[in-house]
């Protein structure tokens, strides 16, 4: 734990050189674990580069750093699922990056670009994030390599429950061991299926409901969970622009009402972040999603955008906005 603290302190004070920053290491812009551009590092490599830079000023021995950098254990499972009279082989992953504190914590994502390297990188980031803010969890991450939109609800449930069976059999889930959470492509519904499957394997555990977070409120979930990450983005930006040195270098006043904001992504995090900025007087002028981006220099109505995209599955055709075919143009131009 003490070594994790020293690394966390180094990570707090470390300011990465600009050469390591690209348009985005988001695994939704790049495909799988590939880089945004040929000359850029992969997602996992970029995480390791940041670790090495911070480790260099941490004062922790190289032997200890080597152990902290490598994941503790990785699980890869494959299992057959019958889909429309055909048998499909589903691949899933779960990585425990560091079990210096238990339980380990990290989301489960459903996306076609899920692979071992992506999950490993995200698990490492969970370890470092928990250490930086002194939350007593180790880091983990998991995922299934599917696009849930290509399956019926019943098929997604079967896949989720079958994946959970694998986690149960390999001791990769449990209130005191590994507590997953929602991530890309998953939500309260999937967490409820995971919890229910786990409880079937552990009917006598009084705390079995704690095997997963992000559950529906009637099943033991926490109010405010859905908007919490987006609210964290708002708080982070609000505090960031309050620093005089930031205001000096950017020309910002420090008042949220003076901000003009572009957001990349309009899912569970992006939507709520936009909502909180809008409610507090900021002007959201652009939003990028995977199919396109929208832009209006006079400001976007977040609820209208959300309802339009939810009903049609895309921003395309939205009135009173400029449609930008390349969603990164919003961010880079």
Q: What descriptive keywords fit this protein?
A:
four-stranded mixed β-sheet, oxidoreductase, 40% helix, five-stranded mixed β-sheet, 11 helices, 9 strands, 333 residues, alpha/beta
**Multimeric organization:** single chain
Number of strands: 9
Radius of gyration: 21 Å
- Helix/strand/pairing category: alpha/beta
Could you give the order of strands across the largest sheet? 1-2-4-3-5
Distance between the termini: 43 Å
Family: Belongs to the Glu/Leu/Phe/Val dehydrogenases family.
Catalytic activity: L-glutamate + NADP(+) + H2O = 2-oxoglutarate + NH4(+) + NADPH + H(+); L-glutamate + NAD(+) + H2O = 2-oxoglutarate + NH4(+) + NADH + H(+)
Pfam families: ELFV_dehydrog (PF00208), ELFV_dehydrog_N (PF02812)
Keywords: Oxidoreductase
